[in-house]
Specification:
Elements (H helix, E strand, L loop, with lengths): L5 E9 L2 E6 L2 E7 L1 H11 L4 E5 L4 H17 L4 E4 L5 H10 L3 E4 L1 H5 L2 H10 L4 E10 L2 E6 L4 E6 H11 L3 E6 L11 H10 L4 E4 L5 H9 L5 E4 L1 H4 L5 H10 L7
Parallel strand pairs: 1-4, 1-12, 4-5, 5-6, 6-7, 7-10, 10-11, 11-12
Antiparallel strand pairs: 1-2, 2-3, 7-8, 8-9
Length: 252
C-alpha cells in the first residue's frame, strides 16, 4: 500500500474572511478562516489550503497576519497561495508559519520561479497549482483565476513543473469546478500515471462517492474541496469512515 490518501479543505480568503462562490463569482461568506481551519483540523482533515483571492498589497499584509494565527491554532500542515510572485513572498509566508506555498499564474509567467523556490526552500514547499479547461482543442492552462487562456497544454506543463522541482501539483478542472458532478478523473488518471509527484485533485466534489472515484478512477493522491465542507454538506469524519469502508487507505 502507498501513502494514505489525503482530504484537504480549501479556504478562499477575501478581506480576512472565508468566501465561496460559483465559477469565481457570487461570493458568500463561509466564516472566519482561523476558526474554520481549527475545526477542520479537529475533525480529521489531513491538510488545509488557504488562497488569498484578492492578493492586493493591503490584502497580503492582512493575509500574512492570518497565516500566523492559523499556524498558532492548527496542528496539521497548510499551504498558502495567492499573490506570490517572487522569493520574498514565499519567505514572508513561510516565516509567518505556512508549511508550503502554491503558485499558479506566476509559474506560467516565470517558470524559473519553480526552480528558485525548490532550490531555496526545497521541493516539498513548492506546490504548483494548475487551472485548466478542456476546450475544443484539448486541455489548456489558464491565468488570473481562470480568466485568461494560455497556449500551455495541461500535461506538457505538468511535466515541465515536475522537472523544474515542484513537489506537488494542485490540478483544478475549470469544467468541473463548482458543478458538484465529480472530479475530472480521466485527466487526473493521465497526470497521476505520467508524473512521479503527488497530484491533488480540485473541482467537482458534491458527494462522498466523488471522493471515492477520484482516488479509485483518478488515481489522485489527495482530494481538495470547499463548499461541501464549509456548508456542512459532508462531514470529514463521515467521509473518511466511508472511504475506509470502501477500501481506501485514509488516516482515521
Amino acid at each position: 500500500m502507498g501513502l494514505a490518501k489525503r482530504i484537504i479543505p480549501c479556504l478562499d480568503v477575501k478581506d480576512g474572511e472565508t468566501v465561496k462562490g460559483t465559477n469565481f463569482v457570487n461570493l458568500r461568506s463561509a466564516g472566519d478562516p482561523v476558526a474554520l481551519g481549527k475545526a477542520y483540523s479537529e475533525q480529521g482533515a489531513d491538510e488545509l489550503v488557504y488562497l488569498d483571492i484578492t492578493a492586493s498589497f493591503e490584502g497580503r499584509k492582512t493575509f500574512a497576519d492570518m497565516v500566523t494565527r492559523v499556524a498558532e491554532t492548527v496542528n496539521i500542515p497548510f499551504t498558502v497561495g495567492g499573490g506570490i510572485n517572487e522569493l520574498e513572498d514565499v519567505e514572508r509566508l513561510l516565516y509567518a508559519g505556512a508549511d508550503k506555498v502554491s503558485i499558479n499564474s506566476a509559474a506560467l509567467r516565470s517558470p524559473m520561479l519553480v526552480n528558485e523556490i525548490a532550490r531555496r526552500f526545497g521541493s516539498q514547499v513548492c506546490v504548483v497549482a494548475i487551472d485548466a479547461r478542456l476546450d475544443e482543442d484539448g486541455w489548456h492552462c489558464y491565468l488570473k483565476g481562470g480568466r485568461e487562456r494560455t497556449e500551455r497544454e495541461l500535461f506538457e506543463w505538468a511535466r515541465e513543473v515536475q522537472e523544474r522541482g515542484a513537489g506537488e501539483i494542485l490540478f483544478t478542472s475549470m469544467n468541473h469546478d463548482g458543478v458538484k458532478q465529480g472530479y475530472a478523473n480521466q485527466a487526473l488518471h493521465t497526470l497521476a500515471d505520467t508524473l512521479s509527484i503527488p497530484i491533488i485533485a480540485s473541482g467537482g466534489a458534491g458527494c462522498k462517492e466523488h471522493f471515492r472515484d477520484v482516488f479509485v478512477l483518478g488515481h489522485a493522491d489527495a482530494a481538495l474541496a470547499a463548499s461541501v465542507f464549509h456548508f456542512g454538506e459532508i462531514a470529514i469524519p463521515e467521509l473518511k469512515q466511508y472511504l475506509h469502508n470502501e477500501g481506501i487507505d485514509v488516516r482515521i
